[in-house]
Amino acid sequence: MRFATWLRRPIVWLPISIGLLGLLVWRTRPWDALALRAVDPAPLLAAAALSGLVAILWALRSAALLRAASRPVAVAPLIPMTAFANTINNLTPGSAGEVVRMYLLRAHHRVDYATSGAVIVVERVGAIGYLSTSAVLAWLTWLGVIPVPLALLVVVALAVGPGLVYRTSIRPLVVVRALPLGRLVGVDRWARLSDWLRRVDDTVARLLGRPGPLASFVVTTAEIFATYTTQLLLVGVALGIAIDPLAAWGALGIATTIGVLSLLPFGLGTTDLSLVALLGVAGVPAGAAVAVSLGYRLVSTLPLGIAGVASYAWLSSRLPGAGMGEATRAIGSTLDDADPIPER
Fold first, then answer.
1. 118, 147, 227, 328: which has the highest count of C-beta atoms within 10 A?
2. CA dist 308 to 21, 51, 121, 126, 201, Å?
């Protein structure tokens, strides 16, 4: 039986969707946030609505990178793909959702794995790099450790830094390819993997080594972070708590980075505790900081997670024809990229 025909059946994708939704609700525990008292619903609803803007910005960023890599895909079909990948990334360690996104891009839009891999490397590594560094800068600026002009100068340097690096031969993937891993994974497999990494590296260089794609990525990523921060500020407003925007950006960015590095689903525990602690340093009372953290999960993680589950159902029911062998290669041996994509 063909893989896509099997996956398109409601008897398959419907229970999986329900299971994902149940896991999502259990992980985010919205009832904890709903137990909050004295909440102004208007700012809370506005913050939840901004999750839709985040999903659109994710898709816009991916579309711009794919276009710069000469594999254009419209923004609309990328919205469910990025939403679904984000949900799976949050529910599983190691960003497993990105492997599925690579397969979906190939199955739906014939984007080769080297291109989708390069786009994902830029999105994941680049975004977390900008998030962590900008958050630390915002936090130190709010604390008064560094002056605003110096912080802005560092931000500009960080924005153009990847472009300068990728115009030289000093690239991270070059170092990875030079590692003697043939004995560990097999000489032939390592040769194929090294060739795939070379193609990914060349594509990353095209994306970050040119001012246009790099500027587009930096601006869109900054807009995503600004939306996250606005959601946190709106949760504070809903609870009657004023938070300085710089402190909010710094606290949320640092806490999110800690959650990502922990590899826990949704960064649960680590992200929340870090955010509560940093908000406490920012002058928010402990009880109020816990309420803000719970409220932020309610308006950000839960809506985006529900969108991701709905996207899974949508994408599964409309998956183009693909043999079981291709799907297995896509998920288990994505890096080989041995089968060429026919020209349109």
1. 118
2. 9, 12, 20, 22, 29
d(CA 198, CA 187): 16
Cα distance between residue 181 and residue 138, in whole Å: 40
Residue listed under structure tokens 């709905």: 310
How far apart, in whole angstroms, are the C-alpha atoms of residue 28 and residue 85? Answer: 17
How far is residue 28 from each of residues 203, 280, 292, 308, measured CA to CA in Å?
36, 22, 14, 14
Q: Count CB neighbours of 59 within 10 A.
A: 21
Phi and psi at residue 161, in whole multiples of 5°?
Answer: -55, -50
pLDDT, tens digit, 9 for 90 and up, residues 238-250: 988 999 999 999 9
Q: Which of 98, 90, 63, 76 is nearest to 330 (CA)?
A: 98
Q: How many CB atoms lie within 10 A of CB 321?
A: 11
How many residues are listed for the chain in this entry? Answer: 344
Residues 169, 174, 180, 185, Cα dihedral to 10°: -160
Express each pLDDT in 225-237 by its tens digit.
999 999 999 999 9
Distances (CA, A) of 48 to 36, 89, 92, 110, 324: 16, 20, 23, 34, 39
Going by the DSSP 8-state scheme, the letter that residue 170 receives in this structure is -
- Other Cβ atoms less than 10 A from the Cβ of 305: the count is 25
Cα separation, 313 vs 98, in Å, equals: 17
Q: In the structure encoding, which two tokens stand for residue 88, read together?
A: 């799976």
